[in-house]
Each structure stands twice: as structure tokens, then as C-alpha cells.
């Protein structure tokens, strides 16, 4: 199963895809946040045979949705209307700063931030509860 990860931003949107087994996330593209964004995401999903979209749920230091989440919620609603695959949220916090830490020589890291969000989801999805490992 292949997944698509999204780091939503008001100017740019980072996109990542997983391998076919749904275990590893890879940076894919940085898209402008424009009127054609949903169409571009739909095209990528079709081209890469994506079965589920994971979008970062951006929160502030108190765990509350930050200002960008209002726009992201509108984007998610539009995405769900146009694309007939599940769209799930993954809580994220400072993913862009984390990507910058590891890629100091790149100007834009939105796609890497999307990969961090997607990898977080994949790791949590594939982890076994502690009691199962005992």
C-alpha cells in the first residue's frame, strides 16, 4: 500500500510518498499553494498509485491547532470532495524545523517535512504495542 504525505503551508506544500510496502517515506515534490493544488495532488496520487493521504495536523506549543490549520482544514475538505481515497491527519510539531536541521544546505525543505510527517504515521502504524512484544 502506497501513502502520500502532505506538509501544508500557506505558500508551499510539501509532498512525500512511501514505498509500495508502506514502510519508508521519501520526499517527492514541493508545490505552490495555488488554485490548482488539489488537481496536482490528484494527479500525483493517480501516477503513484496512492491509496491513502496523510496530512500534517499542525499544532502550537500548547497542542492546539495553529493559524495555518484553518486553511488546511478547508484544503482537506476540498481534497476529500475531489479524491476518492482516505485522507487522514497525523499530529505534527515543527516538522519543517526538523527537516532544516538535517538539510542545512537546502533552501526549501517542505518535501522533507512531508516525509517526516509521513514517516511518523508509518512508524506508528507498524509499531506493535509493548504488551504484544512481551
In short:
With 134 residues, the protein is of the alpha/beta class. It contains 5 helices and 5 strands, in the order βββαβαβααα.
Helix content: 40-55%
The counted number of beta strands is: 5
Kindly give the count of domains: 1
Residue runs with pLDDT of under 50 for 5 or more positions: none
Rg estimate, integer Å: 15 Å
CATH architecture level-2 label = 2-Layer Sandwich
Fourth-tier CATH superfamily name = YqgF/RNase H-like domain
Strand order of the largest sheet: 3-2-1-4-5
Function: Could be a nuclease involved in processing of the 5'-end of pre-16S rRNA.
Pfam families: RuvX (PF03652)
EC number: 3.1.-.-
Main location: cytoplasm
Describe this structure in words.
This protein is an alpha/beta fold and 134 residues long. The protein has one domain (2-133): YqgF/RNase H-like domain (Nucleotidyltransferase, domain 5, 2-Layer Sandwich), CATH 3.30.420. Helices cover 42% and strands 27% of the residues. It has five helices and five strands. A five-stranded mixed beta sheet has the order 3-2-1-4-5, sandwiched between helices. Helix 1 packs across helix 2 and helix 3 crosses helix 4 (110-126). The chain starts with a strand and ends with a helix. 34% of the residues are buried.
Amino acid at each position: 500500500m502506497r501513502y502520500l504525505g502532505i506538509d501544508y503551508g500557506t505558500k508551499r506544500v510539501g509532498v512525500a510518498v512511501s514505498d509500495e510496502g508502506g514502510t519508508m517515506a521519501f520526499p517527492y515534490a514541493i508545490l505552490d499553494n495555488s488554485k490548482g493544488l488539489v488537481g496536482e495532488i490528484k494527479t500525483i496520487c493517480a501516477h503513484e498509485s496512492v491509496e491513502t493521504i496523510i496530512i500534517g495536523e499542525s499544532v502550537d506549543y500548547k497542542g492546539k491547532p495553529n493559524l495555518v490549520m484553518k486553511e488546511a482544514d478547508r484544503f482537506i475538505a476540498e481534497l476529500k470532495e475531489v479524491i476518492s481515497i482516505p485522507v487522514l491527519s497525523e499530529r505534527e510539531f515543527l516538522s519543517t524545523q526538523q527537516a532544516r536541521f538535517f538539510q542545512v544546505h537546502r533552501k526549501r525543505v517542505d518535501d522533507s517535512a512531508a516525509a517526516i510527517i509521513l514517516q511518523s504515521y508509518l512508524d506508528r502504524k507498524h509499531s506493535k504495542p509493548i504488551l504484544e512484544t512481551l
